[in-house]
Structures are given as structure tokens and as C-alpha cells.
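Hi everyone, sorry if this is the wrong subforum. Our group has a chain we'd like a structural model of before ordering constructs, and none of us has done structure prediction before. Sequence below.
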Amino acid sequence: MSAPDHAAETVPSALTKSLGARALGLLVLAGIWAVLVTAPSWMGAVGGYTALGTRVLVLALAAMSVNFLLGFTGVLSFGHAAWFGLGAYGAGLALKFLAPSTPLAILAGMLLAGVAGGLLGTLIVRRRGVYFAMVTIAFGQVFYYIAFRWSSLTGGDDGLRGFSRQPIDIGPFTVDILGNADAFYYYVLFFFALVTAAMALILRSPFGRTMLAIRENERRARFLGIAVERHIWVVFTLSCFFMGVAGALYALTNNFADPRGLHYTQSGDFVMMAVMGGMRTFWGPLLGAAVFVVLQDYLSSVTINWMSALGLMFVLVVLFFPRGLLGFIQNQNHNRGPGA
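Answer:
Right subforum, don't worry. Here is the predicted structure as C-alpha cells:
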């Protein structure tokens, strides 16, 4: 076969593989959303319950917010629970003192976390590696002790109480998201869809390509004229806004907010979910959060040492599946090749 003939056959083959990969990606995306949308109808049959699915969505959103910074920009924050907790307190305080409006509570939580994160991000954006992680822990612990000590506003160690999510008015209809677990699940799913869509649009934009360039080689990105610190600050701030939505939804889920939501151990859980699922994949943190929450729910009902079991599983995943569970699955499908 001559070289031109070989090249002529290679182009259609590459195009076919590209179209096949795109079709497979769309099929997987449709499958993910089909599972999420139908979850309340099948969770009971597999031993779960709707509130567990709601918790998976909320914590998956938090893990995806961490992964937005870590997995796609390469910057590790061990203090992201601060913005999660601020989102929860923002929602609770808005419901308790401003107005009995659930959408307003989510907006308040998102703004409190995002604005605070953006302001503090200007102070830490020049740090890298372990220094960045340690500074974020320090700021997170500052917020934790403020919430712990300011008992007149936050309730201190007892937490913020006296608020609950309110019904949603949609024109002439009113949806009860307090007494109807399925309705609240779909309400959380709506915000989960909004935030993940925003993340996906950002990652597919030129700005998202710049994020990947910084992750892969920050020095080369800087040589190309990219304002690295400014881009990292924007990504950090956006991640705080997304985390604030997750925190607000968490407060609405429990009708409660407490200082433990701000603690660095909570940040560790979010990082664990992202790494376990696959921190360089978009949907990996969702899988990691589902595994983490379901195992936590089951193991805590059978043993008081459930944290040790989860820690052991995390170590095994890191050792044997360094790309995470979703990364391992994708690698297996890639190795099989077309027609396998």
C-alpha cells in the first residue's frame, strides 16, 4: 500500500474513532442523568432511601467544587470546608433573620462563601503546593473558631437552629420540600444541574483550556503570557461560590448548621471523595461521593470504627487505582478498544 493510500485510510479511521468516542460520551452522560433523575423510584429497592440520595448530591457538589480547583488547575485546598460552612450559615441566618425564602437562603449562602473566598484568595493566591494547602487550613480554622465562639449568632457548639426550608411557590402551585423527601431531592438536583452545567461550560471555554495549561505546566503557561495568579484567583473564587451552594443545600437538608461543617476534617472528606472517584475527571467526584456516603451510612450502622474502614478503602484506592475509580473504569474501556 502506498503512503497516500495509507493516509487516506487513516483520516476516516481517526474520524470514526472520534465520533464513536463522542457518541459513547453522550451515552454515558445520558446514563448518569437517567440514574440521578430516577433515583427516588429505585433507591428503596436496593436498600437505600431518598434522603441518602439527597446527601450524595450535596456532598458530590462539594467534592466537584474542590475538584474544579484541584483536578483542573492543580491547586490543592485543605480549607474548602470553610466556604462549605459559610454557605450553610449564610442559608440558615437568611432563613432565620431575613426572610422565609428557600431560594434567598441559597443565594445568601453562595454569596457569603464566594465573596469571603474571593477576598481571602487575594492573600493566598501566590502560594503554591503545601504552602497553599496549609494557608487554606489556617483560614478555615479561623472561621471554625469564630463560629464556635460566637454563640450569640451561630449557636456555638450546639449549632444554628430555629430555621427550616420553606415551600416553593411556582405560580399557582406550592411545592412542599419540607415534608416531601422526593420533592426536596428534585429541588437539590435542580441546583446540582445548574452548578455542574456552569462548571462544564467554564471548562469547555478558552478559560478552561487555560486552567488545564496551568495544571500541566505553570512555568510554560507563564512564559506564554498567561497571568497565572489572576487565573488561579478566579478559579479559586468560582470554586468558593460553588462550594457555597453546596453548603447552603446541606443546611437546608438538615435544617441545621454547626461549626463542624467548617472544620478541616470536613475538607479532608471532600478531597477524599474527589481522589477516590477520580480527581482529573468531571464526574469522578460524584462517584467518589456516592461510594463514600453509602459506605459511611452502612458502616456507621454496624460498627463504631467505620472511619477506619473508610480510611483503609481510601488507601487501597490510592494504591491500586491511582487515577480513581472512574479513571480505572475509563482506562479499562480504552484498553478493550473498539469492537471488543
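For your construct planning: Residues 168 and 174 are 6 Å apart (CA to CA). The two ends are 27 Å apart (CA to CA).
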